[in-house]
Structure formats: structure tokens, C-alpha cells
Amino acid sequence: MYLLQWSGPFRSVEELSDWEEQKKKEGERFFLYFLQGKRQKERKTRYYCGMTFKQKSVASRMKNHDHHIHEFELRKKHLYIWVGTISNMKSPGKDDVSLCEKILTSYLVQAYQTYDGEIVNATNYKAPKDTDIYIINEWYYWKNGMECQRRTSGSVSQIIPDVLSYYADGNSIYSSKRLKCECEIIKRN
Q1: What's this model's pTM, rounded to 2 decimal places?
Q2: How many C-beta neighbours within 10 Å does residue 160 have?
Q3: Alpha-carbon distance 167 to 130, whole Å?
Q4: Average pLDDT, the chain
Q5: Are 156 and 83 in contact (CB under 8 A)?
């Protein structure tokens, strides 16, 4: 089971880079990221899910000359970046990060058909065949650390469900769009 904490939406790589540097000093590292944006002269929103393991940060990965973010940077008004960490593991391995990316990308490939968008990922969207995977997503605003309660239609935080369950036997993904508190069970003093 993976608990993913997402922070965003950042509006530029520079904004992300400054924030990531501060978080690095606090001992946090981000391995996963989502991009949402529009290419120049296109109406469709495009999505991209990626991971970084070799580079020291997501921002440094995005500064590579061949990264997909450069397809969206000319239309900054439509660019949104979310970064994620596996918060229930002290030091997640590359295999853990890759599994999460595969499930998220597999879900996006199915979900983009519902929205007026398109997934940019050309690889790494085939789910593993031999292991069940459970992902819980939590979404936070990067500026104040508050949980995202309202999510804009078509945004990554609205498209990706709070819970994803991949069952290897049926090669299928089940999801729960939005978890909500029905009642307070324990009263605190």
C-alpha cells in the first residue's frame, strides 16, 4: 500500500524549484509528478505522469532539454504541476516509485477518455501482472499546506481518485473518486 501526498498546483518550474529546495532542507524528497497543460495552438488539455529517481529533484528533471514540460511552457496560463511523495515509506525504492507511476498512468490512460484531454505518456502505462497494489492519494496546496477540499473540474487532483486498487488477477483498477468524512467518531478533549 502506498500513501501518496501531492503538493501543487505549481505554475512554473522556477516556483517548484524554490519550494522543493526548502522541502529538501526539511528532509522531504519528491519522486512523482503530474503535468497538466496545453500545447501551443491546441485546445485539448494534456496530462503527463512522470517520476524522477536519478535527478536530485523533480524541478531538475524538468529542466532536461527533452522533457515534456517544454511542450506546455509556451502557454503558462494553462500549466499546472503537482509533485508527490510516498509518505508512508522513509526511503522508497525505485521499484516502489515505478509501480505507483504505472498505476497512475494506467488510470490516466483510461480516464482521459472521459475528459476533454489526452495523456502524453507513450510508455510505462502497462500495469504489473503479478502483484496487487493499493494507492491512497492526498492533495495539498503548496502555498499553505492545507488539504484541497474543492477541486477544479478537469484538474489532475479531480481526475485522479483518492483511492486506486489494482488487482493483478483481473488486471483491473478499481477506484473511489472522493473520500469524505461522514461523521466524527471520536471526540477529542
Answers
A1: 0.84
A2: 25
A3: 9
A4: 83
A5: no
- What is residue 45's three-state secondary structure? strand
> How much is the CA Rg of the chain, to the nearest whole Å?
16
d(CA 102, CA 84): 14
Q: How far apart are CA 164 and CA 144, in angstroms?
A: 26
Omega within 30 of 0 (cis) for the link into 128: no
Side chain identity, residue 65: H
**C-alpha to C-alpha distance for 108 and 48, rounded to whole angstroms:** 9
If one compares 159 and 135, the residue with the highest pLDDT of the two is 135
Query: How far are the Cα atoms of 8, 18, 167, 172, 177 from residue 74, in angstroms, in the given order?
Result: 20, 21, 39, 37, 32
Q: What is the pLDDT of residues 98-154, one digit of tens each?
A: 999 989 988 887 766 555 556 666 566 566 678 899 999 999 999 999 998 767 777
Q: How far apart are CA 9 and CA 102, in angstroms?
A: 21
C-alpha of 100 from chain center: 9
Written as one string, the DSSP assignment of 84-131 is EEETT-SS--HHHHHHHHHHHHHHHHHHTTTTTEEE---SS-SPPSS-
